[in-house]
Amino acid sequence: MAYTALYRKFRPNEFEDVKGQEHIVTTLKNQIKADRIGHAYLFCGTRGTGKTTVAKIFAKAVNCEHPVDGSPCGECASCRAIAAGSSMNVIEIDAASNNGVDNIREIREEVNYSPTEGRYKVYIIDEVHMLSIGAFNALLKTLEEPPSYVIFILATTEAHKIPITILSRCQRYDFRRISIDTIAARLKHLMEQEQVEVEEKAIRYVAKAADGSMRDALSLLDQCIAFYLGQKLTYDHVLEVLGAVDTEIFSALLRKVLDKNITGAIALLEELVIQGRELGQFVIDFTWYLRNLLLVQSADDMEDVLDISSENLKLLKEEAKMVRPEVLMRFIHVFSQLSNQIKYSSQKRILIEIAIIKLCRPAMDQDLDSLLQRIDDLEKKIENGAFTVMPAVSGSTQTADAGQTTPVHKRPELPKAVPEDIQHLVKNWNLVLGDLSGLVRNYLKMAHLSLGSGNVLLIVLEDTVAVAFLNEEEHLIEIREAIEKNIGKQVEIDITANESGQPFGEVYADLEELIQMDIEVEEDSEGGF
What is the DSSP letter of 233? Predict the structure, then answer.
């Protein structure tokens, strides 16, 4: 006899076997017992949560000759025919491949014929969001006023794609993701029936990897059992089959990142690649590991929320003391972005390596989170005595930890003579900004003004992205035209970035500040304005 997959073999046949959807099961059973059955239902929810299964059980229950507490008996001729798929009263339609107007017109013609046996004809339309607009319109009238013996059950994973005119004609039921505990309990029960020995820890991991889908959990478990057929299924076996990574690897990676050990972190990634681990799953799991660390830092009673063993919880609490929440949030932000980028990338390893380097070298990033981490690193170095106060040396500074001298940027003095057009431009700078478009204006609001060689107006920013944006030809033209409009002259400008690592006022002469002083104005050769 051909092998039957676990998710097909153990598909629930009655409402009591449906797990994790009690709020829906109870409502439907009450409707059947009270004979208050609706004519149109919409089952929404993620894959593998029981939409089609509940639809079939409901179809059996409404036609059952001897229902038991709202559930089908499973023994009568109607129940057996529906279970075998031979009943003319239950019609399943896949809207993904039957999504045209003609398919819906066939249904409209069929509903005019009453069932040959049983009370109801039940139409189960799966993935209903795939119907065309024309098909939806053709379904409207029939869905609103079907014959008394017809029930429509529409199932979808994307309810937002269904027209409101359809939604308003249906009773909507949202299927929830099934909890890890519920999935694990179901898997354990089924493995006892199958007489397969499985570690509790292995079942928990499969339940977690299923992401709320009972069908996915059974498929993953089926895959793992097939690989180690006849053997006890262990946690390590599950990790190997699914290409996953143990939490000890995450702990080792985190410690190398905190030590700024890029070589060690990349070597660890190399080991995972050689072992054949799935890199996309690694990114997701490491992000969850960081999330768990953050939760441990946030409260003391997180054992139930985290759903991990006491040994792993003890390790998490130890590592939570090694890193500050702000740094953890930056790590999570970097890897969350990475998980979106890596889905469709053919260079997953390279993207992960870049992300690891970013974690180790926050100076590479220009965002606020990386700045906070750099400050945190400096504070730790100061606490550990990595810096000592050295006597000032003219023209240079010295760091105690490296013994190296670095030049001190000396603030240049403003020329005694400032051209009148530059002076006039600085005084009218706000008027210039007012004539610029949104992003150009916003970036220039953050700029500082100084005077370069050859009487060039220096526009200095701290953000290199802003500098690159403003130096695009169309934006330079816009800025020059705004200047000429407000002062009546063309002024040469140079938009540059402050890459000295020091505050603007220590490197450049602040033209906006000094222009208010009593400065000798250079006479224009053409007699001024």
Answer: B
